[in-house]
Design goal:
mainly alpha; Hypothetical protein af1432; 17 helices; 4 strands; 5% strand; elongated
Length: 337
């Protein structure tokens, strides 16, 4: 036992099991937990089943279970990680209190949770649903604020199939990766405020907000768009910008990402025809990332391109900030390691 009265986990046990906390236990259904539960038998030094999915705990078992959790004697199997991911995804803030999760496991949970929230919000882009998404994005920024290098595990788990939600999550994660890689010392030096980091994160994830106003049959069309359909698509940055006021999201960082993600360095983008450094730093990041993430996922009208090949293609394209595309190339190289 340690100084807090909890059992010290035996060497190697955490490779196969999560030692769960009271917070995690309380998030389970009281009588029917969503996954198998195991107890550590100190007298023999072995794990044994305590509850099997499909059963029902009695009130007495619930009380015993709560006490054993406090003593550090209760575990769930890492083989049940997919179930655990889906469970925690609905209460994402639990990743901040579960000290037994590994970074790659937390990354799986964030990808599941944020994709779920983005789908919900894009299906119903109203203030009430936005608040749930905002809450989960703030869990992400809290997690990264404590160690920005945690973004590495997240960036290795991008979706390979395109959808509006999948694309937005991919862009949010990769844009944050590029932003952090540009000046990692800015976080250590305190040059970046938490409010700024919170808002730019939301901006990266919601850059395609206006696409919710474009009919799905146009967004997902497997054939070339007509002139009229292309004109509708081209309106989405402005449509998204108009939506920000109704959603109480009128922050400069979010506005820049929404209105500038189709601007191009040579002035040939839209809707404002900005060029060069007239495009904000965040706008230049999300513009390149938006195009790149579209290339590396399977779309209705095109197969996915290998991330390294896509990075090489975009790095040669004069439409994008070369500082950003160079960092995308550097990131793509890490996927091979």
């Amino acid at each position: 036992m340690n100084a807090k009265g909890r059992m010290d986990v035996p060497d190697g046990l955490n490779e196969e099991y999560y030692q769960i906390s009271s917070d995690i236990l309380q998030s389970f259904n009281k009588f029917r937990p969503p996954l198998n539960i195991y107890m550590f038998k100190e007298q023999v030094g072995r794990i044994a089943p305590y509850y099997q999915v499909g059963g029902r705990l009695t009130k007495e078992q619930i009380e015993v279970l709560a006490n054993m959790v406090k003593e550090g004697l209760i575990f769930v199997s890492r083989n049940d990680h997919p179930v655990y991911v889906k469970h925690i995804a609905y209460q994402l803030d639990l990743v901040l209190v579960d000290r037994n999760l590994k970074e790659r496991e937390i990354a799986d949970i964030f990808l599941e949770a944020l994709t779920m929230r983005m789908n919900e919000f894009f299906d119903q882009p109203v203030a009430a649903v936005k608040e749930k998404l905002w809450t989960d994005l703030m869990v992400l920024t809290e997690y990264l604020w404590n160690d920005v290098y945690r973004i590495k595990a997240l960036s290795k788990r991008l979706h390979t199939e395109h959808s509006l939600a999948n694309h937005s999550v991919n862009c949010g994660i990769l844009a944050l990766t590029i932003f952090i890689r540009q000046k990692p010392e800015a976080f250590a030096n305190g040059d970046i405020t938490r409010n700024h980091f919170d808002r730019l994160t939301v901006g990266f994830f919601l850059h395609d907000l206006g696409m919710t106003k474009i009919p799905a049959f146009i967004r997902e069309k497997p054939k070339p768009l007509t002139t009229d359909e292309r004109a509708k698509i081209d309106k989405h940055p402005g449509l998204g910008y108009e939506m920000l006021g109704k959603l109480d999201l009128k922050y400069k960082e979010i506005e820049a990402c929404v209105i500038e993600h189709h601007e191009r360095i040579n002035g040939k983008g839209y809707p404002q025809k900005k060029s060069g450094r007239d495009i904000s730093k965040l706008g230049r990041i999300i513009a390149a990332v938006d195009s790149y993430c579209a290339m590396i996922s399977k779309r209705p009208y095109a197969e996915a391109i290998d991330p390294l090949k896509a990075a090489a293609l975009i790095s040669r394209d004069p439409l994008y900030d070369p500082e950003v595309t160079k960092l995308i190339q550097a990131w793509a190289l890490t996927l091979k390691k």
